[in-house]
Amino acid sequence: MSKAGYAQRSSTTSETNDLPDVVDIVMEMGRAPEEPPADASSPPSPAKWSGDKSRLPAHLETLADRARDYVEAASSANTRRAYAADWKHFGAWCRRQNLEVLPPDPQTVGLYITALAAGTASGDKKTVSTIERRLSSLSWNYTQRGQPLDRKDRHIATVMAGIRNTHASPPRQKEAILPEDLIAMLETLDRGTLRGLRDRAMLLLGFAGGLRRSELVGLDVDRDQTENGCGWIEVLDKGVLVTLRGKTGWREVEIGRGSADTTCPVVALQTWLKFARIAHGPLFRRATGQGKKIGAERLNSQEVARLVKRTALAAGVRGDLSEGERGQKFSGHSLRAGLASSAEVDERHVQKQLGHASAEMTRKYQRRRDRFRVNLTKASGL
Predict the structure, then answer these.
(1) What are the φ/ψ torsions at residue 286 (nearest 5 degrees)?
(2) Which one has a higher pLDDT value, 74 or 43?
C-alpha cells in the first residue's frame, strides 16, 4: 500500500452534508439544455441547480413530493437511521485521522474496517457481522452521493477476508420462548389495564404468527389506513388472516384460534380492540396514564423486544442463569424461534409462516429439533 494513499488530508465540510435533495434531480429533468458553443464537439455537462425551490416548475412540484415519498419507502426507518449513524461515525473517524471522506478511497475504508476489528475506532472490537454492516452502510452512502465505492478493491476485499478468517465465530442465537414460557409470561401482565391487554395480544400474535417485531407493530386494523403501515388484519371465524409486507415481500399469515380462550391469540386481539376502542389506524399503540389511556401513535418496534425481555425475566424463564445473562438471551426474535421450535408440523408449514426463502433458514430457528434424526453413521453400516 503506497504512502501516498495514507497521506494526511484536510477534511472538508462537504463530507457530512445531507444527501442531495431529489428536487435537484427533478429540476434537471425540467431544465432546458444550454446551447453549446459553436466550436463544441460534445454537449456540455448540465448546469447546477442553484437550490432555489421556487424555480422548480409548478407541474413538477407534486412529482418531487412523490419522489421523496418513494425515496423514504426504499428502506425502513430503522435502516436509514443505522446508515446515518454509521456514516457519521466514519466521518468522525476520518476527521480524527486527518483523512477525507470524499471521494471514496478504498485504502481509507480498508484502514477504517481494520480499526473497527482492532478496537481502535470506538474503544471496543466490533464483530464481523457489525463490520460487514458498516461496510454495506458506507457503500450505500457513497452510492447515494453518486460516487460508488469499489468493495472489490484489494484494499477492502483482502482486509475483510482476513478479518473474517481471524475473528469470525458462530452466531449467538437468541433463546426460544416455548409455549410453557409464554404462558408464564402472560401471567405477569395486568389484565386490568389497557397496556396489559395490548401486551398480551402482542405476545400471542407475535408467537402464533411468527412475526418479526417490525411486522407486528407495522400492522393496521384494515387495509390502506396509514402511510407507514406494512400490513393489516382480517378477523375470520376460524382465525386471523394477516397480510403484511416483510423482508421477502408481501405474504399472508394464517393465525388459527387456540385450544383455550386464555391462550388464544384471536381472543386476545379481539379483547384488545374492544376495550381500546380501536377501529382504524395502527393496531398496536402507545399507552399512557399508567397504561389506562391509548394514544394514536404507532408503537416502536423496540417495544416488542423490551416486552419480551421484561416478561421473560418476571416469569423466571431460564432461572438457572443470572439476570444479566437472561437479559441478553431474549429479544423479539425469541417469539419466532419459539414457534419454529414448538410447532410439530411439516417443516414447510413453519417455513411459510415465518416467511423464509429456504428450509435451511427455518432450521436455524428450530432450537430443539432432533439433529440426529437422520443418522448417517448407522446408515453407512457402522
Answers:
(1) -70, 145
(2) 74
* pLDDT one-digit tens code per residue, 267-303: 999 999 999 999 999 999 998 887 778 888 899 889 9
State the residue for C-alpha cell 393489516: 232
CATH topology of domain 179-365: hpI Integrase; Chain A (1.10.443)
- What global pTM score does this model have? 0.63
Question: Mind listing the pLDDT tens digit for each residue in 228-271?
Answer: 888 999 999 999 999 988 766 788 888 999 989 999 999 999 99
Residue 295, CA distances (Å) to 20, 77, 238, 287, 336 in order? 35, 21, 30, 6, 28
Closest C-alpha to 214, from 86, 330, 75: 75
The domain limits of the chain are 3-32+50-167, 179-365
Bridge-partner residues for 287, per DSSP? 294
- Who contacts 22 (Cβ-Cβ below 8 Å, separation ≥6)? 64, 67, 68, 71
Q: What residues are labeled active site? A: 212, 238, 333, 336, 356, 365
Domain 3-32+50-167 grouped into CATH 3.40.50.150: no
- Three-state DSSP class for residue 250: strand
